[in-house]
Amino acid sequence: MLVVRPAGPADLEALMELAVLSGRGFTSLPEDEAVLSERLALSQQSFTGAIAPAEAWYTLMLTDGETGAVAGVAGVRAGVGIGRPHFSFRIVTLAQHSLATKTRFDHQALVLVNECAGWTEVGSLFVRADRRSGGAGSLLARSRYMLIGADPLRFSHTVMSELRGWFDEDGRSPFWEGVSYKFYRIPFEQADHMVTASDGQFILDLAPRHPIYVELIDHGAAEAIGRVHRDGEPALALLEREGFERSGLVDIFDGGPTMTCARDSLATVRGSRTLRLAIGHDVDGPQYLLSSVAIPKFRATQAAAAIDDGMVTVDPQTATALGLREGEAVRVNG
Prior knowledge:
The chain is of the alpha+beta class. Helix content is about 30%, strand content about 30%. It folds into 2 domains: about 1-90 and about 115-270, 3-Layer(aba) Sandwich (Aminopeptidase), CATH 3.40.630; about 270-334, Barwin-like endoglucanases (Beta Barrel), CATH 2.40.40.20. The chain has helices at about 10-20, 35-50, 135-150, 175-185, 190-195, 200-205, 220-225, 235-240, 265-270, 315-320, and strands spanning about 1-5, 55-65, 70-75, 90-100, 105-115, 120-125, 160, 210-215, 245-250, 255-260, 270-280, 285-290, 300-305, 305-310, 310-315, 330-334. Strand 12 and strand 13 form a beta hairpin. The longest helix has 16 residues, at about 35-50. The radius of gyration is 22 Å and the shape is elongated. This is Arginine N-succinyltransferase. Pfam families: AstA.
């Protein structure tokens, strides 16, 4: 049985391993021990309520319920752009018309914006390659929405997710090389690292001040605008099933799309309800997504359950995985 639980400082070694496995361009999971250590400490403070709700950043670990081995990671950031701006490129259409030549043109352009301040971000979704079958990715992804549904007022009305942009077979980002590098003049890895390891001031200092006409940039870079990395296509499908749509915003470094959904329109949130737990044996029922309702001790898993008269019956193993006793509240989706 796979179980999703809160991450804390003790998970540093496992998280570093996942960061290495995630590969180039996975900005939200840098190969930086100091950054990841700080994030795990922040996660612990977030789950315990030691910091303001808007500043919380919850990290979730996907684990093997029997061995405790970590199979994946995901995160929920309650509010982006709180301490520093969160920059994106917005794809806009600029219309130009001339009566003299009786012509009209629509030009696509990239404009630097800071529109996401205060939005909740779900991200950092990564599952080890050998554990991606059997619904592990879906369980981990949807557990983030069960966390949001447990206490919606802790989170923004708008939920966003940034997907990794396109990289070619040689590991090069056409968007970075054709657009962003011309302004930042540093290697992608350095810029990628500075996003999480610095205050981000360099982004504003060096960013383009005027619209960038798409027709004037390299064809390969233009083709990469809003294109998802091949490894991110399953994550895109999960987001779309949840109700996310393209927002017209893209990442300023790799051109990956920003997806958004209204918090209360998330399919997992809308389709879940709170029931009372009963414990039985030889439970005969369909598979449900189950989670605890208290954020400090949040747990989520998928297991067979039987629902009747406001009660949901699970086997003892499932109850233990959720950290719940008979009669306690449990959130159910399915």
